[in-house]
Amino acid sequence: MEPLSSSSSSVVGGGGLNSVFVYGSLLADEVVRLLLKRVPLSSPATLPNFHRFSIKGRIYPAIKPVENNKVTGRVLLGVTDPELEVLDIFEDVEYERRLVDVTLIDRYEKLDAYAYVWVDKNDPNLYGDWDFEAQVFTRTIEEQNGGRSSLADHCYPQLIRL
Fold first, then answer.
1. What stretch of H or E contains 99?
2. H or E segment and range at residue 112
3. What is 3-131's CATH number?
4. How do the domains of the chain map onto residue ranges?
5. Which of 23, 97, 125, 153 is the most buried (most CB within 10 A)?
6. What is the dihedral of CA 152, 156, 158, 161, to 10 degrees?
């Protein structure tokens, strides 16, 4: 599982199309649409031998390798090279894009996909589990109380720059 730079060629989907395993804020179609200007086809998937952590003071998760664990998420299919570059910018320097083996839940099929893995494996701010539904509920309450117009505006104001 080697880190890949944003200049790496498309090895996952061929022909400039890629598969990307998402497990956090990119599970929200609204965030994907804001970034990519569309929502690619996707399939539910699991990533074996990884764990999804909460990060102290942050609303988004991190994953890192942990034996005998698995992360549930989905695979975005048909992501173009330019869209992959947008995701690289969104994930920033705290994550590195890696090629991983995922299992598509609905087809029991293994697939190579990119995933964004937390760079600092010894980060003391990683703890416990991160739950997408709990995060969405918390953000919804905050939005109602704070008058925010959308999940993406509230949680990711930096998206406006992309």
1. strand 95-104
2. strand 109-118
3. 3.10.490.10
4. 3-131
5. 23
6. -20
